[in-house]
Amino acid sequence: MTNRHSQLAADVCEIVGEQREYRELLVRLTARDLLLRYKQTVMGVGWAMFMPLVNTAVFSLIFMRVAPIDAGLPYPVFAYCGLLAWNFFAASQRFAVVSLTSNTNLVTKVYCPREMFPFSAIAVSLVDFAVGSLVLAGLMAYYRIGVGWPLLLLPVVVVVHVAFTTAVALLLAMANLFYRDVKYLFEIVLTVWMFASSVVYPIDRVGGRLGALLMLNPMTPIIDAYRATLLRQELPAAAPFAYAAVVAMAMLAVAWVSFHRAEFQFAENI
Amino acid sequence: MERAPIVFESVWKKFRRGERHDSLRDLIPSIVRRVSGRAVRDELVDQEFWAVRDVSFSVGAGEALGIIGPNGAGKSTILKLLTRILKPTRGRCEVRGRAGALIEVAAGFHPDLTGRENVFLQGALMGMKQAEIGRKFDEIVEFAGVSEFIDTPVKRYSSGMNARLGFAIAAHLDPDVLIIDEVLSVGDARFQERCLERMRELRRRGTPLVFVSHNLLAVLELCTRALLIERGRVRFDGTPAATIQEYRSARPSGDEPSHDGDARITGVQLLDQRGRPAHAIETDGWLTVRIHYETSRPIDRPHFGVDVVRGDGVHCYGTNTRIDRLEIAEIDGAGHVDLVIPRLCLLPGCYSLSVAIQDTHGVRPHDVQYQAYPFAVTSERRDLGLVYLEHRWQLNQLSVGQSSVVNLNGVATR
Prior knowledge:
The structure holds two protein chains of two kinds.
Chain A: H1 2-21, H2 23-39, H3 46-66, H4 75-97, H5 104-109, H6 116-142, H7 154-178, H8 181-195, H9 208-214, H10 219-231, H11 238-269
Chain B: E1 6-16, H1 24-35, E2 48-59, E3 64-68, H2 75-82, E4 90-95, E5 99-102, H3 115-125, H4 130-144, H5 159-171, E6 177-181, H6 189-204, E7 209-212, H7 216-222, E8 225-230, E9 233-238, H8 240-250, E10 263-271, E11 280-282, E12 287-295, E13 299-300, E14 303-310, E15 315-320, E16 330-331, E17 334-341, E18 349-358, E19 365-378, E20 394-398, E21 403-407, E22 412-413
Parallel strand pairs in B: 3-7, 3-8, 5-6, 6-7, 11-19
Antiparallel strand pairs in B: 1-2, 1-4, 8-9, 10-12, 12-17, 13-16, 14-15, 14-18, 18-19, 20-21, 21-22
Helix pairs in contact in B: 3-4, 3-5, 4-5
């Protein structure tokens, strides 16, 4: 038992040490991916705003004209906020799942902490997230939604959101390296997952046993927390958000340590 | 006592032959096996084999270890273990400090990024701080000789430019230990010379060095010790010259036979005055070149020849039994011929021997092995050039009254 504890402590030390040693690599890899992404596009970072805007328009049409629902907020701003947060998660995963396999050259030939690849995928999506939130600010101004002191809690929400995203990204990147099916399987899961989170409609409308089951999904309290702190000027619902925070942190710790332990097999199994 | 910066202790590494399971349908059985605890680490199951078996060595400050051996012997695996890309199945592998690895020096390059962007990226991959790269940037670009193209995407670079830029970054890393894999195969002769110069410089500063190469002469020149690896095991561990000789003598007669089937050279030994194997020979020392031969039929009046070639290709000396007007009536079966050189007279450096058996007219060779047997010459002498010429200095001074000849060895003669 003590042996396992000291092993864990050693792993954590190593993880922290490597993060410190290679922190500039993360910046460089992220810069590389951003550069590559936008080097030959005309719209550049404009794409980061364009995609959630189109989605918002489509869902606004559905939920305002075809099957109107009351979201308690102007629907477009409700949907855009949800889509923006969801897109950060989804884009991070799409990018992270292939982050190791698309860097075969580096994984097999150079040593660096392999977390850097999924991490840079997340960092790139985070930049898009920041750019996309400018549009949210615009929408909030248009619908005359002010801000209140609960906004101070926004950084906590972002941290939980990023932690959960990172945990899933680490597991996916690792899984896809060993089993390439993961990439395809995950596309399907992602689509279902979006409608199982309160991205474009309030999830509590589902109700019943299925509704209770859906509350286990940490993405719902996270997205709801964005709407609470940004759009409703209120605190996030305490219990669900605390649950999401605990799940996110626990998953991150487990995912990171397992990733670190599996790391040395990457070069021979890629 | 301080521990050596590079320690490799009874390292074993297991690999799997062929495809591994790569999709979910194979995952379930493998999980079942793992849970039921059947996957024992030390045993070989179905397709597995040991790529490295029980290899131990350590490299201290100022030491340079050469690793030689045939293709597929496990040399590159050892390097990947040293650079932490792979982890040993058993044993311990420790490298302290920042390891500069001259392996795949351009691995981190992205074709769509410019040279400048790639320098920063590759530098970061090697663990350099951005400020450090910024400081050395001009020097790196200068060393690589690509300053005009530094803002061009590297996809438009020639492969030589690519390699030079990669090496330039690695060379400016100021590593605590340096690990090198056959970098000398890229670039032109001048660039290779610069690479070697950079390695010598690091070695002089006391940076421990591990060098894998097929270039035996470079190993001879650069290393203080060498390992011969064969099928994952250390077959020989000693001075570079001894290891290289072992490698040469153990090598099966080549991929394509150099001989015509009638007679062949089965081995060449370099011996000292007392008939013991000589690894490094003194300038004033004795050298016996023993050529072992074997014939499949009686050979009438053959000739044996030996050439000495310096590392840079300069032909220093050549002789054969024909030139020396010797006649060997006939050879049949196995035997050996000795060329005895009582005083070598070559100045310090790396040399190799070419050895041949020729027919009686010196026209058709039975077997020729070009530059197949490297050796090193060492000396306290600091004379320059290729050979030591027997000499002495004399000062003749005409002064008023008497003339004297002073032998500068100290004894004055009148």
